[in-house]
Queue: 2 jobs
Job 1
Amino acid sequence: MDSTFEQNALSDMLKMSELAGLEVYFNGYKNKELQSFYIETPRGKYTPDFLIIKRKGNKKYKNKKNKGKIEKILIIETKGEPYYDE
């Protein structure tokens, strides 16, 4: 993680009872292997900070053959104080 703001955000998300049973992923900033999720935009690739995934039947991803179908995805981008006015 590249900031304590992201560390705190992840720590707080993992404590929320509303997220129990969901998958929370950090999309690693400095580790290329963890940056596998991105969104193609007219301005280039956008890599959000976090994904929260809900799968049908509350099944968890175990491997490529044993995974539940994704029902909803929440994309979270954290921004620290320097970006408040942007």
Job 2
Amino acid sequence: MNKGEERRSKLLDILRQAGADPVPGFKLAEELQTSRQAIVHDIALLRSAGEPIVATSRGYMLATALAPGMQKIEVVVRHRPEDTPKELYSLVDVGVRIVDVAVLHPIYGELRGRLELDSRADVEEFLEKVSSCKAHLLSELTDGLHMHTLAARDRKYLDEALRVLEKLGFLVKEDSQDETELETLAEARSR
């Protein structure tokens, strides 16, 4: 085994041990005594070899880390960008993980970004990163209409998340104009 293969093997071990906790690239670089650029290169090689590594706003993790015992739902929501903190904090406060965010873009189809937000601290870190990078939210591409995959160990937390989103006026219900818009985008995507 050459040095690069050995480093990639150790990188996978670190991600397996971290479980559902994303590991920042700089921490991987420190632990493996290499550069951040080498980590990016190693991640690309591991992905091309079929390893289910995902990048989140908080670091790298194995996509399989969430699966055991977790229930998932996908919700469709719409709100203004300035309501994003209220949405994210409300969801983690009821005990759900915000796995990702997705939009159906009329040109590019589905665009999805991993979030892996479990706590207020995670949300704070995500919002700070958005602010400091002057980044735009995916939902801004679709006038606030977007989807989230939510996960929890018990269905009661997912049900509570639905109630909270409905109370905030963010939840898109079936037969609404937003739902019709999503169906139109999905049809355009399948052409």
